[in-house]
Prior knowledge:
- By secondary structure, this protein is mainly alpha-helical.
- The chain is 62% helix and 6% strand.
- Strand 1 (105-109) and strand 2 form a beta hairpin.
- The N and C termini lie far apart (112 Å).
Amino acid sequence: MALASVLKRYVQRKGNRNEDWKEVKDDEKEEFSKLYKLWKGPTKDTCTTYKAIPRFYYKLPSEDELLLQKLREESRAVFLQRRSRELLDNDELQGLWFLLDKHHTSPLVGDEQMINFEDFMKVSDLAGQKCKPFFKPSVFAKLLQSDPYGRISIMQFFNYVMRKVWLHQTRIGLSLYDVAGQGHLKESDLENYILELIPTLPQLDGLEKSFYSFYVCTAVRKFFFFLDPLRTGKVKIQDILACSFLDDLLELRDEELSKEVQESNWFSAPSALRVYGQYLNLDKDHNGMLSKEELARLYYSITVLH
C-alpha cells in the first residue's frame, strides 16, 4: 500500500508539472508574438502609408507571359518616344543660337561673344520650356572661368547644349535595342545597333555587304573587351556613353575625314580591313578559326620581328 501511495503522489505531481510547463510555453509564445509584431511594425492593413506610397517595383514578366511582355515593350516604346519629343530639334537649336547671339553681353573677348547671368536668364525666358533645363545657375557656374565681368562664352554654352542633346538622343537610340529594358545591352543587341548604323556612316560606304558581319564582330568585341571585364555578356548603356568608343564610331559620319584620322580610328574601314587581313594571314588552314599554333605566330611576330 505504501508503494502504491508513493506512485500515485508521483504521477499527480508530474501531471501538475506538465500543466505548469504548458502554461509557461503558452506565455512564452504569446510574449514572442507580441515582440515580433512590435519589431516588424504595422502591417499593410493597419498602416496608412501603404495607401499613400505608390508601388515602385514590378516583377519582370516571365518568358511564357507573352501579353505582359508585349505590354512592357509597347510601354517602353511610348516612353522613349515621349522623351525623344522633349529634346531640341535642329530648328530649335538654331533659334537658341539666334537668341544667344542677339543678347550677348559686351565687350567681346577677341572674336568670342560672352553673356552675363542677367542676359543668360533673359534668354532662358525667351527660349521656351524645352530649353529650361539648360539655363540653371549651376550650369552657368560650371562654364564660368576667369572673365573679369563674370560672363561665360556663348559658344561654350551652345556646345554644352548640343552635347547634352546628342547624349540624350544616343541614349534613347541605344535604349531601343535594350530588349530586357534593364539599362544594358547584350552582345546581340549591340550587334543589331551597329549593323543598322552602318548605312548612316559615309566612311563605310566602300564596305561590301558580305563584309558587314566581320566588321560588326570587330566593332562589338572592342566594346565588350573593355566595358565587360567580368565577362557577364552585357554592357551598361551608361558605360557606352561615357567611353570614347561611340564617339570614334560616329566620327565616321564625317565625309571629309582625313586618311590619318581613319588610320588611327579602330572602327574605320581601313582599320577593319587591316585586322581582317592579319586574321587571314594567321589562319593558315582557312577554317575560320585560329588554333594555338596559329595564334602563337602573332606573338612571335610581335615579340621577335618588332
